[in-house]
Write a structure and sequence with these properties.
Blueprint lengths: L2 E3 L5 H4 L2 H6 L5 E4 L1 H9 L10 E3 L5 E4 L2 E7 L4 E4 L5 E4 L2 E7 L4 E4 L8 H9 L3 E5 L2 E4 L2 E4 L3 H11 L3 E5 L4 H14 L4 E2 L11
Parallel strand pairs: 1-2, 2-3, 9-10, 10-13, 13-14
Antiparallel strand pairs: 4-5, 5-8, 6-7, 8-9, 11-12
């Protein structure tokens, strides 16, 4: 693996990053300052380590056939540590252009913002990875972008395909499919199961 791209430092997004980096001496990590600081706390060299690639909203990074534009995510990024300290960061979305392939929007944990219409005009994405739900917060649902908002997002981006993510139940998926059929009828919903691969 050449590159790990992380939207923000929350545990469910940083995920297995350290394990992936440990499997290769050449794999790089692209993320905001807090994401790279998490790697530094684990023994990597921080922002000036040649394997650590710092990005921020508005920046562009090129890796082989991939051009990765970082844009704002409307969210919060934080990480608590056992010693009581915590870290905050800059949550990001990414527009990933593949040479001779699709342009993909990865929404991370963003909520709906009118910027998405501008990104649709600027980058013309074909595929969007969109959160359509959220997380269970001690019995309370914390949905950054619910199914109706996600359908509006797809419409504003102008994508042809949406891969829904970050949802807990089949009900979320069914609601999203219903709203998408109304707001963006020419757009298909491609629900991918855990461990499944698809060709875009």
């Amino acid at each position: 693996m050449d590159l790990v791209v992380v939207s923000h430092c929350a545990g469910d997004h940083f995920g297995q990053t350290l394990e992936i980096l440990a499997n290769s001496d050449t794999t790089k990590l692209l993320g905001d300052h807090s994401t790279l600081c998490l790697a530094e706390r684990a023994g990597y060299g921080g922002t000036w380590d040649p394997r650590m690639e710092l990005t921020t909203s508005g920046a562009t990074y090129v890796q082989g056939d991939f051009t990765i534009h970082a844009v704002d995510a409307r969210h919060i990024a934080f990480k608590h540590f056992p010693d009581g300290s915590y870290m905050t960061g800059e949550p990001l979305c990414y527009i990933i252009r593949v040479k001779d392939g699709p342009t993909c929007f990865f929404g991370g944990d963003t909520s709906l913002t009118y910027d998405m219409k501008l990104w649709g005009e600027l980058f013309r994405p074909d595929v969007a990875f969109l959160g359509i739900g959220g997380v269970d917060l001690q019995g309370r649902s914390l949905d950054e972008m619910d199914p109706p908002a996600a359908a509006i997002c797809a419409e504003m981006l102008g994508v042809k395909t949406v891969i829904p993510m970050h949802y807990r139940t089949q009900e979320y998926l069914e609601q999203f499919q219903q709203y998408l059929a109304v707001r963006c009828p020419e757009c298909r919903c491609l629900a991918v199961k855990a461990g499944e691969s698809v060709t875009l």
